Amino acid sequence: MTVGTGQLGLGALRRLPEASRPLVRPGTVDVGIVHLGLGAFHRAHQAVYTEAAMARSGGDWGIVGVAPRSTGLVTTLAAQDGLFSVTTTSAEGSHTQVVGALAGVRHAASDPAAVVALLADPRVRVVTLTVTEKAYQLDPVSGRLRPDPEVVADLTTDRPPCTVPGLLVRGLLARAAADAGPVALVSCDNLPANGRRLRGLVEQSLTYARVPDRAVAWVAACVTFPGTMVDRIVPASTEETLAEARRALGVADLAAVAAEPYTQWVIEDVFPGGRPDWGAAGAVLTDDAGSWERLKLRALNGVHSAAAYLGALAGRETIADALALPHLEPVLRRLVAEDVAASFTPPDRVSVVDYGDQVLARFANPAIRHRAIQVAMDGSQKLPQRVLHTIADLRAAGRDARWATLVVAAWMRFVRGRADDGTALPLDDPLAERIRAALAAHPDTPAGVTEALFGLTEVFPAELGGDEEVRAAVTGWLTDLDRHGVAATLAGAA
Ligand code: CS2
Questions:
Q1: Could you tell me if the CB of 301 is within 6 A of ligand 1?
Q2: How much distance in Å is there from the Cα of 90 to the middle of ligand 1?
Q3: pTM for the model
Q4: Is residue 96 left, alpha or beta, with left meaning phi > 0 and alpha meaning psi from -120 to 50?
Q5: Which CATH architecture has domain 290-493?
Q6: Reported ipTM
Q7: For 236-294, how does the pLDDT look when each residue is reduced to its tens digit (9 = 90+)?
Q8: Sequence ranges of the chain with CATH classification 3.40.50.720
Q9: Which residue intervals of the chain bear CATH 1.10.1040.10?
Q10: Cα–ligand 1 centroid distance for 185 (angstroms)
Q11: Ligand 1 and 130: CB distance under 6 A
């Protein structure tokens, strides 16, 4: 076969450029991890760390990747023997590497029994998740389980589970019944205190499902929920991503992802059944990931959301394009230096301002075409930990939150669905209906919109909703954005 034809798979390995070949021999490692959520982020993050850990220190930590809903990727990865490539890309150039960490793939929606069986398999000692904020089905403010009909059906009937809470509860019950040994459930999503949130999700789900006391006791004794901070910018793959992988590999890779060079993983080290030697792969194992997580959620994700909403309103397609808007970068620097840095205590020896500078340099990477609309989606699930916690902590310390309230105002203008030039903007959010109904019930003025959206108590905690100064600041920014648009608002503020 000539180079340039064929598809990635075990049979194509010999034809790959040597520098692109996997670090472990695919098909030779046994399963040790189940991962829920096969998206681009997992493939360019945990899969890469796990492969490097196995290459350096051994261990059977092959990952079975589970796609909760979409079938396309499962079919593709199965056809490619679990192989996919990660292209690390920046202005300096790019490198494409095939990853051999996957020991299998499953589709939860069509074969939930296989997923439940895996969760009860004694070889599996770690379960990781990247399912996005909304799949946890928790109210962002209270952390309470949302009684979504699908979740309720999963937890209260015998039907095959299709939601994340349903799969986890059924899997843990099967594991307890099989006495298959302790396991760590590791959230790798950008939730606040993600380990505690996942524990809360499992405990509430067990209660909802009225499982027997001994199963509850088994979970309490045998399951841990390490908190993590995960970081790497990995946009959704595009035709260009696949074309670049093909150019580099000489064969097609329909599961290719592209990512920035930077990567970080901070993990709380509570793994009762053992874990890969992720430390050898560059991860930081710690007692408490909390301050790292706050740093990242506030100084990276909060700033990302700011760039996404302001950029989308100003008609910019990508985050890098948004950063090129006059005055945006200085405003984002002030958001970090004046608001985020004053809102919490960072990890030892970390300067929030330096971290913020590094983040802005990463966002400006011209090779990463991260669409503003992608970062903007699911705002109701993201805003609390990215921006509202910053505001709440500043207010508790008696300070104002000038720049963080601008981000809230930008989100509010964004969810009304029009860019500054009148172009329609999509509202892709699990609370879209609630947001639209709240807006429809109030006058379409800055004060009316603020009133409507602060009333979403699952997003805005009562202490913020009742804070007149915060409301006034948001209304003020919204007035500027409505009257003058993003460009003039930024020019006037910077
Ligand atoms: C982004 C994140 O889409 C988003 O909301 O803010 O996916 C971000 O790229 C990652 O958290 C970076 O680690």
A1: yes
A2: 17
A3: 0.97
A4: beta
A5: Orthogonal Bundle (1.10)
A6: 0.99
A7: 999 999 999 999 999 999 999 999 999 999 999 999 999 999 999 999 999 999 999 99
A8: 10-287
A9: 290-493
A10: 21
A11: no
